[in-house]
Amino acid sequence: MNKPRDLGLLLELAQRRRDACAQALAQARRERQQADAQMAQLHAYTHDADARWQQRASAGVSPTLLATHRQFMVKLEEAIGYQTQVLQQLDARIAHHEAQLIDAERALATLQRVQQRWQHDWLRRQQRLEQKAFDEMAATVHRRRHPPPP
C-alpha cells in the first residue's frame, strides 16, 4: 500500500513563516524597549532641567535666559510628543506582528494535525490489511486441517 501523503515541504514553509513572524515580533519588542528607554531619558532630562531652573530662578534671571529656558522646554515637550507617537506606532507594529505570529502558528498546527491524521489513517489501513491477510491465512489453515465432509 502507498505510504501516507507527506506535507513535509508545506510544514517546512509554515515553520519558516512562523519563525520569521516570531523574529519580527522580537525585533519590534526590542525597538519598543529602546523607545521606552529614550522616553525615560527625555522625562528625566525634563525633570532635571526643571530642577535646575528652580534653583536659578530663585536667584533671579534675565529675560533672555527665561526665553531660552522656555524654548528649551518647548523643544523637550516636542521631543516627548514625538516619542509618544513612536511608542504608539511601535505598539501597533507589535500588535500586528503578534497577530501574524498567531496566524502562522495556527496554520502550522493545522498542517501538523492533517499530517498526523493522514499518518494515523494510513496506519489503520495497514493494520486492517494485515488483519485481513492474517484472517485469510487462518481460514486457509483451518480449511486444510478440517476439510469439509464428503
Structural write-up:
It is a single chain. By secondary structure, this protein is mainly alpha-helical. The mean pLDDT is 92. It is rod-shaped. It has helices at 8-59, 63-145.
Outline the fold blueprint.
Elements: H1 8-59, H2 63-145
Structural class: mainly alpha
Q: Roughly how much helix do the residues carry, as a percent range?
A: over 70%
- Termini separation (Å)? 40 Å
Number of helical segments with 4 or more residues = 2
Query: Proportion of β residues?
Result: under 5%
Major β-sheet annotation: none
Radius of gyration: 36 Å
Unreliable parts: none
The outline comes out as rod-shaped
Please write the string of helix (H) and strand (E) elements. Answer: HH
Number of strands: 0
What characteristics describe this protein?
150 residues; rod-shaped
In short:
This protein has helices at 8-59, 63-145. The chain is mainly α and 150 residues long. The two termini are 40 Å apart.
